[in-house]
Description:
By secondary structure, the chain is α+β, with helices and mostly antiparallel strands. The chain has 2 domains: 2-204, no CATH class; 218-405, Nucleotide cyclase, GGDEF domain (Alpha-Beta Plaits, 2-Layer Sandwich), CATH 3.30.70. It has helices at 2-28, 30-44, 48-77, 92-118, 127-158, 165-176, 178-204, 206-214, 235-242, 244-264, 283-287, 291-305, 307-314, 346-356, 358-361, 369-372, and strands at 221-232, 268-273, 276-282, 320-334, 340-344, 365-368, 381-390, 397-405. Strands 1, 2, 3, 4, 5, 6, 7 and 8 form an 8-stranded mixed β-sheet that branches. Helix 7 (178-204) crosses helix 8 (206-214). The longest helix is centred in the middle third of the chain and has 32 residues, at 127-158. It is elongated.
Amino acid sequence: MELVMSxxxxxxxxxxxxxxxxxHISKLGFHAYISVGLLAVFMLSYKFRHNVFQIISFGVIWGxxxxxxxxxxxxxxxxxxxxxxxxxxxxxEATIFATLLSATLLGLxxxxxxxxxxxxxxxxxxxxxxxxxxxxxxxxxIVLILLIITTIYNATVLDTHILDARVLHHxxxxxxxxxxxxxxxxxxxxxxxSLFYLEVSENLGQAVLLxxxxxxxxxxxxxERIFMFVDMKSSTTIAEKIGHLKYFDMLKAYFSDLSDPIxxxxxxxxxxxxxxxxxxWRMRKGLKDAHCVQCFxxxxxxxxxxxxxxxxxxxxxxxxxxxxxxxxxxxxxxGVVKKDIIFTGDVLNATARIQSLCNSYNxxxxxxxxxxxxxxxxxxxxxxxxxxxxxxxxxxxxALFTISHKQRVAYSFR
Length: 414
């Protein structure tokens, strides 16, 4: 129950904040509701789903932790109907429900804060230091909120001001009790687990982690996928010009700027190979609204948007070329010491060969004729045939196209 009380106190503060936001929106009138609704739809279409996955993950982890705590508590208390340390009444059925609900909601609240506001905090630190500093920060926030709420609560009950000696005495008793700090220690453990899970998700990729957890590719399966091989132009020249350490910093910024457009257009980052990134789509997602083509131009716009920043830091703006193709691959888990989900199939080699021909045709994007025939490019893009070409290591020729905008599209950035 001590855990439930702490959770509920925290939830009271978050609930009050939500009510204030809703009250503010209602004052703005009908147009505000429309704007908020349109914003929600827009966000659901892009990176918002990435954040939602993280937020829900926090809620699930915290909910499970709440249930585990309830069962541990039941094991310690046995048939007792009260808490020996405080004398508060105890009922297992009510406690487990309240703990599950409050822990899940609190997890969702912290997941929202982490995903939308604090995810990039301490990003320059090592994994262990980042998790340690974030855990201390979150604990400090929790303790501060609990102190504020407890002070206001006791002042209200005692019908006096918050600096009254009796109020401060009750607050002191609250924070000096063993139960308070034992709950804080348990919450710290939950925070560490949540943050570690988030870091693993970011390192593996949400899609890969989800596939590992669900066992989707534990048994190899065949599927059709679209692939895009993206290669930085003149990377060797740039590295020699600015130095390899500075070049590596530029690579980090470059891949970071490409990530958002990839997520927005349903892409999955398969792997990084030097300055090359391989992006993959399931057929339905890649073909829908020509996401695989839109992704290319969104990535170009993202780099253009950061042009001044690149010039300021590195003295050069990275550009890239890309090749797109689709085909059948076998997908499955592989490895013993280090597991991974890999694709095998001729389409990977073919896509790499297509991308390598960009310089020969003096274009930034090349796409196979078989993929062009599956895409609906009407209205936004124009496909220009470049004839047929024999790919290195293959006897048969393949039709190649380059893509251009019929009219320039402005991509948004958040």
